[in-house]
Amino acid sequence: MASSIYADQLKEGDEYEELKPVISIWLIRGNCIPNSRPFHHRFVAYDPEHQIQLSMHQAIHLLEVDKWHKIQVETEEDRWLKFFKESKEIESNRIPEVFQTDIMQKAIGTLRQFSEKSRARDIYKRQLEFSRIALTEEKSKKKLEEQLAAEHAARLLEQKARLLEQKARLTEKSARVKAEKVAALAEKQVEKAQAEKEKAQAEKERERAEKEKALRELERLRARLDAQAVKKPLAKKRERD
Fold first, then answer.
1. What is the arrangement of strands in the sheet containing 40-43, beginning at the earlier edge strand?
2. For the chain, does the N or the C end have fewer beta carbons within 10 angstroms?
3. Is the pLDDT of residue 47 over 90?
């Protein structure tokens, strides 16, 4: 950023001699350089091997505010460090005498503007965060409702599937029972037909046996008659003799 500020100073046709130094001032809270007691350090682009400084136009001034502990303000640097260290404690209607200078009055005015802007920004951020939270909650609620609706629909589909499965099992069981009844009835009919067939066969056997018996009886009677027919002529012959 410092390099861009430095380069942006030049307009078309300007000479490099017209460039002005760009100084960065870093205000640090805490102990940034533990092994150094001074609160003010100046850093530049420097070649330590050949001990050559690149340019006097660029430097970083690092001020460790927490290392400044003076009571009396002796220099402008002290005044600025006291300002940066105690700025939050300065009341609008009671400005310490040490800050009763034109430059300090401008700094305090700028600080108040920043504070007001900061408060407005904080309010805006809170409103934005509230809106974001409300939107997130609304989305979460909608997502939860959709999830619950999907779960409810899934449960209904599962219940429907179970009912269809139960119906299918009942239908299968009913068909099996019906088939078993039909099979049992067919088996009974087969058994009945077999029994009737066996009965008819037995009746035929009985009739054949009776016929054979009657035929044997007729044969026996015929043989007996034939024997009697042979005996009668012999008897008559004996009587004549």
1. 22-28, 58-64, 40-43
2. C
3. yes
